[in-house]
């Protein structure tokens, strides 16, 4: 007669959560080996439990021994899974829900754009529920210098791209468009300082946009996200309320792209 008791699913689930917590702790250690005591203290687990949970992680190469005795660090399996995840990621498909949520929170049109030489191309969008809204389409190309999303990307770009934008010309698209290199560079410095950008009716008459940069695993910024709407619903006074919503959404996308902590 088999008297073996079936495994308790709750116990298995708790053990899995604790093992994942160990991986997360090692990942947050910024490359420094962690001792058994450090892991135990940080996660409020006794050392015997940590030792037991580390064993399968060591056997499957998610964790490896550190340089000093009884220390540990992440191993190569994490990089393999991370590369597989990033390699299959499509921002225009996989970040759509973030645009949906941002549009629901603001009741305005949201966009995700990608850099394209001295322009940006709109790769995803969610329309405002209002009948009066910004008219745009996926695949649309707009200049960097006059759009909030483009200025976000420029603010974190190398000097070569800024020089290329200036050399390509900055004709006025509205009376408010920035058209000089000095004014553009001053605007980019402000964007880097505060972490978001505004198209203050600079690209299209009657439309105001607030945007934030999106960073990838290497810390580069080639994407940006924005909220856009008619000035009647997005007056200057509303910008301060929209900016944190946009930067939070951009941060969410950045983390999903592998950015450890989006740089301002």
Automatic annotation (TrEMBL):
SMART domains xref list: HTH_ICLR
Protein origin, superkingdom: Bacteria
InterPro entries reported for this sequence: GAF-like_dom_sf, HTH_MetabolicPath_Reg, Tscrpt_reg_IclR_C, Tscrpt_reg_IclR_N, WH-like_DNA-bd_sf, WH_DNA-bd_sf
Native source species: Microbacterium capsulatum
Keyword set, alphabetical order: DNA-binding, Transcription, Transcription regulation
Pfam family name, one: HTH_IclR
Boundaries of every HTH iclR-type domain copy: 13-76
Name recorded for this polypeptide: IclR family transcriptional regulator
Ranges where the IclR-ED domain occurs: 77-259
């Amino acid at each position: 007669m088999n008297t073996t008791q079936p495994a308790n699913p709750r116990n298995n689930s708790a053990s899995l959560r604790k093992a994942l917590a160990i991986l997360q702790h090692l990942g947050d250690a910024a490359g420094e080996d962690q001792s058994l005591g450090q892991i135990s203290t940080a996660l409020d687990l006794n050392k015997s439990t940590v030792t037991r949970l580390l064993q399968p992680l060591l056997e499957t190469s998610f964790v490896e021994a550190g340089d000093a005795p009884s220390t540990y660090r992440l191993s190569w399996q994490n990089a393999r899974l991370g590369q597989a995840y990033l390699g299959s990621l499509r921002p225009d498909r996989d970040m759509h829900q973030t645009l949906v949520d941002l549009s629901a929170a603001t009741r305005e049109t949201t966009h995700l754009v990608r850099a394209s030489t001295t322009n940006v191309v709109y790769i995803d969008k969610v329309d405002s529920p209002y009948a009066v809204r910004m008219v745009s389409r996926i695949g649309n190309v707009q200049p960097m210098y006059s759009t909030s999303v483009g200025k976000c990307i420029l603010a974190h770009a190398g000097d070569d791209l800024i020089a290329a934008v200036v050399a390509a010309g900055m004709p006025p698209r509205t009376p408010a468009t920035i058209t000089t290199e000095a004014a553009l560079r001053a605007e980019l410095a402000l964007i880097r300082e505060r972490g978001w950008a505004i198209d203050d009716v600079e690209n299209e008459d009657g439309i105001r946009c607030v945007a934030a940069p999106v960073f990838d695993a290497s810390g580069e910024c080639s994407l940006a996200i924005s909220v856009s709407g008619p000035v009647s619903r997005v007056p200057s006074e509303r910008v301060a309320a929209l900016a944190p919503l946009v930067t939070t959404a951009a941060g969410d996308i950045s983390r999903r792209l592998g950015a450890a902590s989006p740089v301002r």
